[in-house]
Design brief:
Length: 163
Amino acid sequence: MRVLIIIVFFFVVQIETLLAHPVHVSICNIEIEQDSMSISFKLFKDDLQLGIEHNFGKYLSIDELVKTSDFRLIDDYIQAVFTISSNKMTKMKLNYINYELNEEAIWLNYKCYVSQLKKIQINNSIFLDLYYDQTNLLIINYHGKQNGYRFTYRNTDQQIDLR
């Protein structure tokens, strides 16, 4: 009986390991228009659940989001780990719009209002307190140009010239 329990335990651990995604990555897309900025984050659901539990001590099932307090927790997490500062290094307010779920990930959509941006400073430390190998990719579209940036544990800040 004892051997059977050990075998079942080993089998369950192996299945969980196979189901976990092998890389730790997030994607952020920023579309800058004349007077607004649309920001979309693609995050693995299990990472977001763990990030919220780690930072706020509360369990949140991403597949069962219904309460306003659930969205506040998610928004509080994003506001804490992702910031954009404008020309004068003033932190910009990210306004939560909505979310979309798929099998493994959640897309979080935000908007902020801007005027005459010349440069922005971005701090992206999403999940960096959870995984040493976390990589956060950022794609910015502005005036028909597209640029990509990579944020890691050693590089959480980027100053981006938009001229």
